[in-house]
Design a protein that fits this description.
Blueprint lengths: L12 E6 L4 E4 L2 H10 L5 E4 L12 E6 L1 H9 L3 E5 H8 L7 H35 L4 H10 L7 H8 L34 H12 L3 E4 L7 E4 L10 E5 L8 H13 L3 E7 L28 E6 L4
Length: about 300
């Protein structure tokens, strides 16, 4: 499925802010998939199964967004920030009108899932009988599956298949609360997600060039930068932001360059260039911001890639 064919959620969609530690979460798989395909937003899956809390390979919903990702989506008016705790408190003050209908739909989904599993069991039994029968015609095998006992036959599954009313519906756990409670309303006065100025400017610049970015803690940087979806590409750069006039220790440059080269990537450093010429004392004037500029100022971002050649 291409990006144009990906189903879009209702826009703008809510990003749930979890307090007291500021975290931005998404619980809807359709939204997560659409963002990855159309906006190059990765985030990080943080959900785990109750029986496997220590798993660290295949995590699931919810998806945690980086502050820079949440800020970018809000600025594009694709999403808005919602206080998750307050929105649930307000919505649950009165019983949702759709609660009974929602529970009925969940029971139907659970029954459909139980039937699908039972059908799969029956198919496995039929396949096993075919393998045992050798050249026996399929019609005779199916008759044997209905009438004869075999090593692979399960009387319990057979009886439950014949009478679907005896099936116990699976318990379905929805990933979102909407429905049954109404979707949270958008607050125009909600503040933008707080971000670090230099890192957000670099993130926004690289994102505008079509790159995917994930947290770079594994490599000691701010962002791991991918030329395409990480499911298909390795990262090309280890990105770190800095102020334009910030002094950077030479050992940090050497260490970053050697680290990047050691993992077959480039160490990328970037920041917002300050405009204006130096005065007679060699001092640059302080850059001013006009109304409407974000805290990063006019985003004339320059980047440099450093590799170790020794």
């Amino acid at each position: 499925m291409t990006a144009e064919e990906a189903p879009a959620p209702n826009l703008p969609f809510p990003i749930f802010q979890i307090s007291p530690k500021i975290r931005y979460l998404l619980f809807d798989i359709q939204t997560v998939t659409w963002l990855r395909r159309t906006h190059n937003i990765l985030g990080a899956l943080i959900g785990s199964l109750p029986q496997s809390p220590q798993q660290n390979v295949f995590l699931g919903l919810p998806l945690e967004l980086q502050p820079e990702e949440a800020r970018l989506l809000v600025e594009k008016e694709v999403a808005y920030i919602v206080d998750d705790l307050q929105s649930h408190k307000m919505a649950l003050q009165s019983p949702p009108a759709q609660l009974e209908e929602h529970q009925t739909n969940l029971r139907k989904e659970g029954l459909a899932a139980a039937k699908a599993v039972e059908k799969q069991k029956t198919q496995k039994t039929a396949d096993a009988l075919r393998r045992m029968s050798g050249r026996q015609p399929i019609s005779d095998v199916e008759a044997a599956a209905d009438g004869d006992e075999s090593l692979f036959d399960n009387p319990l599954s057979r009886s439950s298949t014949r009478n679907s009313s005896n099936l116990v519906p699976f318990s379905m756990t929805p990933t979102t609360s909407y429905p049954p409670i109404p979707s949270p309303t958008r607050r125009t006065s909600a503040p933008l997600p707080e971000v670090n100025g230099p890192s957000y400017a670099l993130f926004k610049h690289l994102h505008s060039k079509g790159y995917f970015m994930s947290p770079g803690l594994r490599f000691g940087c701010q962002f791991s930068v991918y030329p395409g979806d990480p499911l298909r590409f390795h990262s090309h750069f280890l990105a770190t932001s800095a102020e334009w006039d910030e002094e950077i220790d030479l050992l940090d440059i050497v260490g970053g360059g050697r680290l990047g080269t050691g993992v077959k990537k480039g160490w990328l450093i970037g920041g917002v260039e300050k405009k204006g010429s130096s005065d007679e004392n060699g001092q640059r004037p302080v850059q001013t911001r006009t109304e409407g500029d974000d805290e990063t100022g006019p985003a004339n971002v320059r980047t440099f890639c450093i590799e170790w050649g020794g």
